[in-house]
Amino acid sequence: MNHFTDFICGIILPLLLFGGGVFYLFKLRFFFILHPRRFFRALKGADGGSLKSLSVALAGTLGIGNIVGVASAILAGGYGAVFWMVASSLLSMGLKYAEVFLAMKSQRSKSGVLYGGAPYYIYDGARARFGCNAAFALGSLFAVFSIINSLTTGNLVQINAISSLFPISPLLLGVILALAVFFIILRGQKSVSAVSSALIPLLSAFYIVLCLIIIFKNISSVPLALLRILRDAFDLKSLTGGVLGYGISSAIRYGVSRGLLSNEAGAGTSPLAHATSSSEPHAQACLGIFEVFFDTVVLCTLSALVLILSGAGGGGDAFSFVIRAFGGELGALGKYGVSVSCLLFAVATVAAQYFYGAESLRFITRSRLLHVIFSIVFFSVTVFSAVIPNSIMWQISDLALATMTIFNLIAIIALNKNVTYK
Could you tell me the pTM of the whole model? Predict the structure, then answer.
């Protein structure tokens, strides 16, 4: 399984992300880079509903990927992985714009409630060319990938990563977290949106403050940390080893896969949240670009600098690395502050990912029984995630997220004629 995952995540996924990202950057004529006033004008046009949709999308990605995911990338791919994480996210901004734009153009409405996402734009795009049955099969295939991803990356990874937070039984922790998520999603998407819009800005601000305190404390070492990231990213021995091995260096492999875990640009997940907005497609798609920028370029870079400046690398798993870094620099405030942040981020992410899985299943069937079965499976995964071995967890997560992303990237590239900008 290791070799297959390395092939998918180390060759196919980076090539598609980079290729698709460059394609959309030229298609969109770099407007959000070359014409920032036009971009920020679109952001100002977003209404309250748009911002709530953005909060749910951010809840689905922020947290473990930005903190523990960065630590995992550094442990597995070296400091150079940070460069490729940020580079892939910059290239992925055009992909995020495209998938959110397509989701807004393929919106559905029932009883005044808006919904949509990747399964729907895949269906709409394939119907004219292949017919309704084939289009439904393709949309359903992506929906199945999305459901699997909500159970693994969106649930398993989050709970497993924080399983060592408290000195209690992992199973008991799983039960407590499952109950917390259950009460959030009890009232449906509106409850998830309300919790996300209240929790995510506060958590993000608190985490940024922690990171900035540590960075300014070690400000003289920041240039050396940045130089080390660049040096390791283009280390000749590492790159040559990658070519002679499975094609691309471990820095690129883990940088790209953990960057994708962080922002899920091109994966087709967050369009499920954005499609609940009544905003104009261009404005909502620009919010998608902001989502990638804030998620990876800002938060992941801050996390990486803290981890490097702390000098806390070494043995142990990714979460231990994070605790050593923040605890070593800020004592109890750092240790417990980042622990609580990870816990709350994880709960918000799992709640948002439940919504993604349920909405994907909704595309396939409206059967109440199957939705109940999905809920039972989802919360069972929440309970038992804490006891799954760490290495297996990351393998499952990388493969699940990479597979659905490859499928979605093919779709949004094929539908590029439907993507426009102002």
Answer: 0.88
